[in-house]
Amino acid sequence: MAPRPIAALLADRRFATGAAILLTLPYWTSGIAKLIDWNGALAEAAHFGLQPPAGVAALTILVQIGASLLIIMGRQAWLGAGALGLFTALATGIAHPFWQMADPVARFHERVTFLEHIGLIGGLMMAALS
Prior knowledge:
With about 130 residues, the chain is mainly α. It is about 85% helix and about 0% strand. The protein has helices at about 5-10, 15-35, 40-45, 55-75, 75-95, 105-130.
């Protein structure tokens, strides 16, 4: 059992909202950046061979911002967390295939990024529990 001051902090909705904002920060900021720089979003989708780029970019923005809002607002957080978890799993496999890297330094950096994204999925799984 947590000490009383810690228990009070953990029970405070503002704490949960702050945690949700921080957990989803990489997603909603990326979605906003894609909205601001639509051509960059199209170029990113095309870079990874995703077709059609406009459809992929639009769906990415919808998932990144919409699912983040569900978690932050605490409304169907399980759905938002599931959507971001699935998105992260797919995007991580596409963007960070460390197992294909010949250069050991590049492989190391891609592996670290890959594992950080897997950690985000774990955080999203925890968010789905609330």
